[in-house]
Amino acid sequence: MNQVLFELRGVSRNYRRGDSVVHAVNGIDLTIGTGEFIALEGPSGSGKSTLLQLLGTLDRPDAGEIFFEGRPLHTLGDGALAELRLNALGFVFQQFNLIQTLTALENVEAALAPHGLRGDSLRARAHNLLDEVGLAARESHLPVHLSGGEQQRVASARALANEPRVILADEPTGNLDSKTGSDVVDLLAGLGERHGTTIVVATHDAALAARAPRRVAMRDGSIIEAVPA
Ligand SMILES: Nc1ncnc2c1ncn2[C@@H]1O[C@H](COP(=O)(O)OP(=O)(O)O)[C@@H](O)[C@H]1O
Ligand SMILES: [Mg+2]
């Protein structure tokens, strides 16, 4: 493995449901290397989204420790975590989450704006990102005039805006037919390779997960299998 990006030691996250407790993530040990492409596979409710939220610093574990590039996340306050998300992490969601009133190009520009670009350089960089995902020709379209696969391409371009070290994708193909879905997974894999970005894709689709060089299978909050181990 290359350098270590994430290291998880005994990570747990519990939710209270009435009188009982759901162990959404249950004592996970996992090391993710820089530049890896990993599928997090498991049925609905197995804890994939909870684990991605922990990796994305959108949530904190109840037990255990997560290190990102050697930094113990539990020692960072909310401001430092927000800065980490802004500068180091990219997110792709099942629902695409594009701003419906902005064109494809403007959606990517909106993600670039916090990074200090303005005017022509902002536009040029947004255009280049859309070009990279094969959507330059449709950049002036609103999301409603794009197919699901095209919207997810825009979302993938947007996720690259901050040149993240990792992209966390939660069921990115969940709203797509299987051919379009596998195209999106291949796109993410290619982007990861070209940019040296680590990609973690959560999916309940075992066939999609099988496309990833590394697969981590979850059941009931635990890792039941990792290939390769
Ligand atoms: N905010 C929450 N409150 C209570 N229970 C939750 C919450 N989020 C997830 N869970 C529960 O935790 C378990 C894992 O959920 P999740 O991480 O969403 O799994 P997956 O993404 O694999 O479908 C499930 O039993 C789910 O119902
Ligand atoms: Mg989920």
Brief digest:
By secondary structure, the protein is of the alpha/beta class. It contains 7 helices and 10 strands. Strand 1 and strand 2 (20-33) form a beta hairpin.
What do these coordinates show?
It is a single chain. With 229 residues, this protein is an alpha/beta fold. It has a domain at 37-49 and 82-227: 3-Layer(aba) Sandwich (Rossmann fold). 33% of the residues lie in helices and 30% in strands. The strands form two sheets. It has a six-stranded mixed β-sheet with strand order 6-7-8-3-9-10, sandwiched between helices. It has a four-stranded antiparallel β-sheet with strand order 2-1-4-5, covered by helices on one side. α3 crosses α4 and α4 packs across α5 (148-159). The longest helix has 18 residues, at 178-195.
Number of helices: 7
Mean pLDDT: 96
**CATH class category name of one domain:** Alpha Beta
Number of strands: 10
User: Which small compounds were modeled alongside the protein?
Assistant: adenosine-5'-diphosphate, magnesium ion
Please give the share of residues in helix.
Answer: 25-40%
Assigned CATH architecture of one domain:
3-Layer(aba) Sandwich
The major beta sheet can be summarized as: 6 strands, mixed
Q: What is the string of SSEs from the N terminus onward? A: EEEHEEHEHHHEHEHEE
In one word, what is the shape?
globular
Radius of gyration: 18 Å
Distance between the first and last residues' Cα: 12 Å
Q: Which assembly state applies to the chains in this document?
A: single chain
CATH superfamily of one domain: P-loop containing nucleotide triphosphate hydrolases
Strand percentage lies at 25-35%
Strand order of the largest sheet: 6-7-8-3-9-10
What name does the CATH topology of one domain carry? Rossmann fold
SS-derived structural category: alpha/beta
